[in-house]
């Protein structure tokens, strides 16, 4: 009976290892950044590489390598950084996608607070030199590039997102350019 229990226990363990191994491999991650999240920012990427800046910031690079037929030229889409933002005790995960030239390609937010796509789209195409500050009044919207309009009723959250995006842009400005 003791041998049978040991055999069954080892069998269950072997099955769990064989089932969980592919799940773990597909959920590749570095410091809370996953393959799936990087692919949400750059959906056409078929090669995601996880790296860290000299300052320790985790990010991934997103590439399209093609089907391997020999005619495809690798295309570098950009970088994806992750930041955690805390508002009133709630955690929000912010993904910042940057094009190779340092301009913002896309922002994605996950968490308890709803963040409008209209607000997130205001960051698109901006770089560190354009600025990502939140407007404090109507006069801030009259200049080019204008400041970003806060989420209605969520100025604190808007400012925290803006600050996190600015941190990413500063961190990314020190990175070497990717060679294809």
What does this entry look like structurally?
The chain has 180 residues and is of the alpha+beta class. The chain contains four helices and seven strands. Strands 3-4-5-6-7 form a five-stranded antiparallel beta sheet, with helices on both faces. A two-stranded antiparallel ribbon has the order 1-2. It is globular and about 55 Å long. The termini are far apart.
List the helices and strands and how they pair.
Elements: H1 2-26, E1 29-30, E2 33-34, H2 35-41, E3 47-52, E4 58-64, E5 75-87, E6 90-98, E7 104-111, H3 117-121, H4 155-173
Antiparallel strand pairs: 1-2, 3-4, 4-5, 5-6, 6-7
Give the gist of this structure.
The chain is an alpha+beta fold. The protein is 31% helix and 26% strand. The protein has one domain (2-173).
List keywords for this structure.
two-stranded antiparallel ribbon; 5-stranded antiparallel beta sheet; 31% helix; alpha+beta; 4 helices; single chain; 180 residues; 7 strands
């Amino acid at each position: 009976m003791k041998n049978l229990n040991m055999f069954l226990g080892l069998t269950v363990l072997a099955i769990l290892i064989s089932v969980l191994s592919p799940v773990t491999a597909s959920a590749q991650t570095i410091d809370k950044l996953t393959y799936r999240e990087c692919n949400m920012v750059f959906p056409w990427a078929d090669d995601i590489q996880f790296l860290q800046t000299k300052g320790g910031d985790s990010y991934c690079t997103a590439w399209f390598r093609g089907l391997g037929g020999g005619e495809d030229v690798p295309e570098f889409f950009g970088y994806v950084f992750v930041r955690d933002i805390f508002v009133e005790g709630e955690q929000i995960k912010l993904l910042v996608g940057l094009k190779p030239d340092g301009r913002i390609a896309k922002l994605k937010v996950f968490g308890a607070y709803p963040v409008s796509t209209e607000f997130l789209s205001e960051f698109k195409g901006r770089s560190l030199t354009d600025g990502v500050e939140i407007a404090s009044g109507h006069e801030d919207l009259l200049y080019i590039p204008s400041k970003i309009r806060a989420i209605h009723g969520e100025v604190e959250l808007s400012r925290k997102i803006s600050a996190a995006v600015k941190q990413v842009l500063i961190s990314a400005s020190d990175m070497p350019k990717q060679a294809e």
